[in-house]
Design brief:
It catalyses: an N-acylsphing-4-enine + H2O = sphing-4-enine + a fatty acid. With about 675 residues, the protein is of the alpha+beta class. It is about 20% helix and about 30% strand.
Length: about 675
C-alpha cells in the first residue's frame, strides 16, 4: 500500500463555549488542559486509484455539519479522490471539547447555538490533517493485532445488559468488550509511521465539573504514545501519529469503582441508579484515581500500555484490495425483515424520559431517573405546552419508551434531529471498518460485528477482521438491543429511531458487506442526500467586546508571582492580567497559550521545554468585571524533572477599541520571574 499519516490541531475556542458531551449548560470552557487533534490515515492502492481515509478527531462526535463541510473542502481540493464513501470521520467522544458545531436544533439547546469558530476549527483541523497525510504518502505495510485490556471499563447499565438472552450472554466472559484492535503502520524500510487503536470505553474520566478543554483518557493515551515515538519533540509535534479511536462504547464507563451516592458514600448500583437521599442526581461513578485528573491518567496509561505491547508484537500483515461502501438512509422509515413472516419499522426520532436522567458518568437535571417506562404527567404537560404533544403514531412506534421530546416532529427553526444517516464500511484488505453513526452498546456492537462477519463469510471473503468505529459521520445518540430497549435506561431512551434501530442497522450493514464481498459497491443506491441548513452562525455566546487591564497594569503583567523555588511534584503557579482566549482562537489557527522554559547556561538563553499541549500544564481563564479577566498558569512539576532555572510564559490577545465603534485584536505576552527547581 501507499500509506500517509497526518495530525493537526482542532482545539478551537477554549473559553465561554459549552463543552459537548454531558449536555450540562453550566459546563462551559474556562481554559485548557490538553490540545485537541485530528489524526488522519490514508491507505492507497499503488496500482489503482482506490483509497481509504480514516480520521479520528478529539471531539465529542462527528456532526453531519462537520462531515458535509469537510467533504465540500476535500472536493474542491482533490476533485473525486476523497468522497463520502471512502472518507470515514470518527470522534473519540471526549466530553471536554467545545460544542456548538451542529446544525440540528436539539444540540443548540445546551451548545448555545451554532458557533462558527468552534465548527471552523474542527473542519479545518480535519482537512489539514488529511492534507498532511496526503502529502506524505509513501510505500508501506500494515500489521494488525488484538488483545485484552484489563481494569479499564465497567458496564454502566448492567441491568439493561442482563435483559439480553442468557444463551447469548453465556457466550461472552464479560459485560463489556475488553478487546483492543491495533493497526500498525510502517514504511517499506521499516520506519514507524503510526497506529490506530480501536477500544470501547467512554472518555469520561473527566467529569461534568471540569471546565478545561482536553481529550480525556484516550487523548492521554495518544499523547503518551506520540511523546515516546517523537523523542525530543514538543507535544503535538513529530511525524509519528497515534490515534485511539472509539468503538461500541455505548454502555461502557472508565469509572471502574462504580456508582456511589455522593452524599452518603453507599453504592447506588441499582436499576434506577438512584440514592435513598437525593435520588438519581446523587448517583455518580468513581474512577480509579483520587480525582478526575488522576483517573484520566490511570485509564489512559492502561490503554496506552496495552496498545504499545500489541503494536510491538504485531506480525499479522494486512494485504488485499481496498474498497468502500456507503449509503445515505432515511432512518425514520426503514422496513426490517425480522424473518420470512415478520416485518417491523423504525420510527421518527424521539428521546425518552430517561434521556433526561443522564448516566452515572454525568447525571441529568430535575431528578429524572433511569429506567422510566412511564411518563411523568408534570413534565409531559410542560412539554405539550412548549413543544407540542407527540403524535399517537410516534408514541406507538417507540413503545415502551415514554416520549419526552418528539424531536422528529419538531422542525422550528430547523429539524431537531437528523433523519438522513450515513451507513459506511471501508475495507483495507482483511480489515473491515464499520463506521457507525452513534454509540452502540456492548451487545449491539457484538451483534453487528457478527452479522457483518457472517455476511463476508458467506460471500467468499472469510476471515475478515471486523471493527466498529464509533461516533462517525452524523450523531444519532445510542443504539441498544431490542431487549435492552425494553427497560428504558439512558441508552435505550436515547435510541432515537425506536426499538428496531439495531435490526435496521444490521440489515443495512449486511447489505454494504455483501456489496464489498461481491465487488458490487457501484450498484448500491446512493440514497437521499442529507440537508445542509442555511445557518452559518447563530449563537447565544457573549460578544467579544473591548477589554481593559486594571489601573497601572497592562495585559500580560503578573498579578500573582511564582515562588522562587519548587521541588518536583509541586505546582508552580502564576497569574497574569489576561485577555479572552476566544480572541486567540479567532485570530490564529494554532495559538499556543503558554510555554515552560528552562535557562541554558551553555547558550545563555531560554529553551522551550513544554507547551500548552502538555498534560502537566493547566491554563485557566477567569472573567472579572468591567472587561477585565485573569489567566492563571499551573505547571504540575513531574517527578524526574531536570533541576535548574525555569520560567512560565503566557501568550494572548485582547480586544481594543479604536475610533468609530470598532475593535481590533492585539497580541501580547507575559512572563513569570525565574524560579529554581531543586
Amino acid at each position: 500500500y501507499l500509506v500517509g499519516v497526518g495530525r493537526a490541531d482542532c482545539t478551537g475556542p477554549v473559553a465561554q463555549v459549552p463543552l459537548m458531551g454531558y449536555a450540562n449548560a453550566d459546563q462551559v470552557g474556562g481554559g485548557l488542559l490538553s490540545r485537541l487533534y485530528s489524526r488522519a490515515f490514508i491507505v492507497a492502492d499503488p496500482d489503482t486509484s482506490k483509497r481509504v481515509v480514516f480520521v479520528s478527531a478529539d471531539i465529542g462526535m462527528v456532526s453531519q455539519r462537520v462531515r458535509l463541510e469537510v467533504l465540500e473542502q476535500l472536493q474542491s481540493k482533490y476533485g473525486e479522490l476523497y468522497r463520502q464513501d471512502n472518507v470515514i470521520l470518527s470522534g473519540t467522544h471526549t466530553h471536554s471539547g467545545p460544542g456548538g458545531y451542529f446544525q440540528y436544533t436539539l444540540f443548540w439547546i445546551t451548545g448555545k447555538g451554532l458557533i462558527r469558530p468552534a465548527l471552523s476549527s474542527i473542519v479545518n483541523g480535519i482537512v489539514k490533517s488529511i492534507d498532511i497525510a496526503h502529502e506524505n504518502m509513501k510505500r508501506g505495510r500494515l500489521f494488525i493485532n488484538r488483545g485484552t485490556v484489563e481494569n479499564s471499563q465497567i458496564n454502566r447499565s448492567p441491568f439493561s445488559y442482563l435483559e439480553n438472552p442468557e444463551s447469548e450472554r453465556s457466550r461472552y466472559s464479560s459485560n463489556t468488550d475488553k478487546e483492543m484492535v491495533v493497526l500498525k503502520m510502517e514504511d517499506e524500510d521499516g520506519h514507524e509511521l503510526g497506529l490506530i487503536s480501536w477500544f470501547a470505553v467512554h472518555p469520561v474520566s473527566m467529569n461534568n465539573s471540569n471546565h478545561l478543554v482536553n481529550s480525556d483518557n484516550v487523548g492521554y493515551a495518544s499523547y503518551l504514545f506520540e511523546q515516546e515515538k517523537n523523542k525530543g519533540m514538543l507535544p503535538g509535534e513529530g511525524s509519528f501519529v497515534a490515534a485511539f479511536a472509539s468503538s461500541n462504547l455505548g454502555d461502557v464507563s472508565p469509572n471502574t469503582r462504580g456508582p456511589f451516592c455522593v452524599n452518603t458514600g453507599e453504592s447506588c448500583d441499582n436499576p434506577q441508579s438512584s440514592c435513598p437521599v437525593g435520588g438519581a442526581a446523587m448517583c455518580m461513578a468513581k474512577g480509579p484515581g483520587n480525582d478526575m485528573f488522576e483517573s484520566t491518567r490511570i485509564i489512559g496509561q492502561n490503554i496506552y500500555l496495552k496498545a504499545k505491547e500489541l503494536y510491538e508484537k504485531a506480525s499479522q500483515e494486512v494485504t488485499g484490495p481496498l474498497s468502500s461502501a456507503h449509503q445515505w438512509v432515511n432512518m425514520s422509515d426503514v422496513s426490517v425483515e425480522l424473518n420470512a413472516t415478520h416485518t417491523v419499522k423504525t420510527c421518527k426520532p424521539a428521546l425518552g424520559h430517561s434521556f433526561a436522567a443522564g448516566t452515572i458518568d454525568g447525571v441529568g437535571a430535575f431528578n429524572f431517573t433511569q429506567g422510566s417506562v412511564e411518563g411523568d404527567p408534570f413534565w409531559d404537560q410542560i412539554r405539550d405546552q412548549l413543544l407540542g404533544e407527540p403524535s399517537n403514531e410516534t408514541k406507538a412506534c417507540h413503545r415502551p419508551k415514554p416520549i419526552l421530546f418528539s424531536t422528529g416532529e419538531m422542525t422550528w427553526p430547523h429539524p431537531w434531529h437528523p433523519v438522513i444517516v450515513d451507513v459506511q464500511i471501508a475495507a483495507i484488505g482483511s480489515l473491515a471498518i464499520l463506521a457507525v453513526p452513534g454509540e452502540f452498546t456492548t451487545m449491539s456492537g457484538r451483534r453487528l460485528r457478527e452479522a457483518v462477519q457472517s455476511e463476508f463469510d458467506s460471500h467468499g471473503t472469510p476471515g475478515m477482521n471486523v471493527v466498529i468505529a464509533g461516533l462517525c459521520n452524523v450523531y444519532t445518540h445510542y443504539i441498544t438491543t431490542y431487549e435492552e430497549y425494553q427497560v428504558q435506561r439512558y441508552e435505550a431512551a436515547s435510541t432515537i429511531y425506536g426499538p428496531h434501530t439495531l435490526s435496521a442497522y444490521i440489515q443495512l450493514y449486511r447489505g454494504l458487506a455483501q456489496a464489498i464481498a461481491l465487488n458490487a459497491t457501484q450498484d448500491l443506491p446512493r440514497g437521499p442526500e442529507p440537508p445542509l441548513f442555511n445557518v452559518t452562525n447563530l449563537t447565544l455566546l457573549p460578544s467579544l467586546s473591548a477589554e481593559s487591564a486594571p489601573a497601572n497594569k497592562k495585559f500580560g503583567d503578573v498579578l500573582e508571582e511564582v515562588r522562587q523555588e519548587y521541588r518536583e511534584r509541586e505546582v508552580a503557579e502564576v497569574t497574569f492580567v489576561g485577555g479572552n482566549p476566544r480572541n486567540s482562537a479567532e485570530n490564529a489557527t494554532e495559538h499556543n497559550f503558554l510555554t515552560v522554559e528552562r535557562y541554558s547556561n551553555i547558550s545563555s538563553s531560554w529553551r522551550v521545554v513544554l507547551n500548552d499541549a502538555s498534560w502537566d500544564t493547566r491554563f485557566y481563564w477567569t472573567k472579572g468585571s468591567r472587561g477585565q479577566s485573569n489567566v492563571t498558569i499551573e505547571w504540575h512539576i513531574p517527578a524526574g524533572t531536570e533541576p535548574g532555572v525555569y520560567r512560565l510564559r503566557y501568550f494572548g490577545h485582547y480586544k481594543k477599541s479604536v475610533p468609530i465603534f470598532r475593535t481590533i485584536t492585539v497580541p501580547f505576552e507575559g512572563s513569570s520571574s525565574a524560579f529554581r527547581i531543586t
